[in-house]
């Protein structure tokens, strides 16, 4: 099996059943790994029930406590590499990322020469829906800020809907990725770019979650602002 979708969860009982069904309804041979940070709402139990329906395709890694988005993805990446997946995609559980777009992200890596494909809100054809104006301004401003500081040729560097070829994750020293929140996505793309991998942006429409609660916080935003400076400083002057 070569295609894995990693979905980190914390209190996603309202979404998890539907998002899993939606991925498998594509009938594109994706496997799904849920990395659940001990959700007290029973998200993990819902996944366990679905594993009977999707035996050999749906997997669950349970962690004790809320350890951060970045560490959840690193955990998932290592799990995927150990099981020889060739294409590893990360996405949210809340339908802000449309499962149907998984096919286009995979195609960009499998058939269009990309090493990393990014579901992008800020390239031609990309869009956002149902966002409050302040969140939209913050996100777009962050994308400009990242490019100004790091010079990375990616318009949506904070995007969390990303497909990686196996060789990218093998080359990145995952244990040295520093950030766990907002800056994690930036650091991963920046590291891949500096290693010489080709990044392709695929336009998507990002739709704000309808069920559950956003995990965004002031601390995550602060990490993003300061983290970008640290990422570029270390790139230019060493650690």
From TrEMBL:
The keyword Transferase applies. One of its GO terms (molecular function) is dolichyl-phosphate beta-D-mannosyltransferase activity. GO terms for cellular component: membrane. InterPro entries: DPM1-like, Glyco_trans_2-like, Nucleotide-diphossugar_trans. It holds the Pfam family Glycos_transf_2. Gene3D superfamilies: Spore Coat Polysaccharide Biosynthesis Protein SpsA, Chain A. Keywords: Glycosyltransferase, Transferase. Residues 5-172 form the Glycosyltransferase 2-like domain. GO terms for biological process: glycolipid biosynthetic process. Belongs to the glycosyltransferase 2 family. This is Dolichol-phosphate mannosyltransferase.
């Amino acid at each position: 099996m070569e295609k894995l979708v990693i979905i980190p969860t914390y209190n996603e009982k309202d979404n998890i059943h539907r998002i899993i069904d939606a991925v498998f309804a594509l009938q594109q041979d994706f496997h799904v790994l849920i990395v659940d940070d001990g959700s007290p709402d029973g998200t993990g139990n819902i996944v366990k029930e679905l594993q009977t329906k999707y035996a050999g395709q749906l997997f669950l890694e349970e962690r004790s406590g809320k350890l951060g988005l970045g560490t959840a993805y690193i955990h998932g990446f290592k799990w995927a590499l150990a099981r020889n997946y060739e294409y590893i995609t990360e996405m949210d559980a809340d339908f802000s990322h449309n499962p149907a777009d998984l096919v286009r992200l995979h195609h960009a890596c499998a058939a269009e020469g990309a090493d990393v494909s990014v579901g992008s809100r800020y390239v031609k054809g990309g869009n956002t829906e149902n966002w409050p104006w302040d969140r939209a301004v913050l996100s777009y401003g962050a994308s400009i800020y990242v490019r100004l500081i790091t010079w990375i040729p990616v318009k949506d560097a904070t995007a969390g809907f990303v497909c990686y070829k196996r060789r990218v994750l093998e080359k990145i020293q995952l244990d040295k990725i520093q950030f766990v929140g907002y800056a994690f996505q930036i650091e991963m793309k920046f590291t891949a770019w500096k290693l010489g991998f080709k990044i392709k942006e695929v336009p998507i429409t990002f739709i704000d979650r309808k069920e559950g609660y956003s995990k965004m916080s002031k601390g995550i935003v602060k990490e993003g602002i300061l983290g970008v400076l640290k990422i570029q400083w270390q790139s230019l002057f060493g650690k």
